[in-house]
């Protein structure tokens, strides 16, 4: 009986604490229902270890907000209990004997109480290239480690008229100030939330 009373008291304290958290200065805050992401790897794509990766995008990302799940043998995967926000979803690909990276990173908007769908890969055109060492290079070449990546072009950032006359330190100081501006944040968010863009790092 004592244990039951202790449990009831603990639950009551938790409920009172939660109520105080969501009623601040007379303003009520309501909890939103979870969203959900259902996804599919494009035909011919395979995730290393069947691992699917998801990360929270700006403006809501604070610190590390990365999540993982696994896909089935048909490449289908699900993220349950996802808060409403923009996320980036991709899958793990092997880039060398001891290295791996996330490829086909695709932005997905999740809305409260709704299911968002995404297909990873299968868009765009293949880019085929050949590595040619510089003339006179006679050392061995090893591609077992490291990352090779292909990313979409990003918006051109503005520069002050005297940028080329600045020292490297002054250029870096200017850049540090620029990325704190609302103009940069708005530009960056628009780029990251563009569902027609994705980044690839498989090779």
Description:
With 203 residues, the chain is an alpha+beta fold. The chain contains three helices and nine strands, in the order H-E-E-E-E-E-E-E-E-E-H-H. The strands form three sheets. It has a four-stranded antiparallel beta sheet, with no helix packed on it. Strands 6-3-9 form a three-stranded mixed beta sheet, with no helix packed on it. Strands 1-2 form a two-stranded antiparallel ribbon. The longest helix is centred in the first third of the chain and has 21 residues, at 2-22. It starts with a helix and ends in an 11-residue tail after the last helix.
Average of per-residue pLDDT values: 78
Ends apart, CA distance between termini = 65 Å
Q: What is the highest CATH level, the class of the domain at 35-125? A: Mainly Beta
Helical region count? 3
Please provide a brief summary of the model.
With 203 residues, the protein is α+β, with helices and mostly antiparallel strands.
List the helices and strands and how they pair.
Layout: H1 2-22, E1 23-24, E2 27-28, E3 35-41, E4 51-56, E5 66-70, E6 76-82, E7 85-96, E8 99-110, E9 115-120, H2 168-178, H3 182-192
Parallel strand pairs: 3-9
Antiparallel strand pairs: 1-2, 3-6, 4-5, 4-7, 7-8
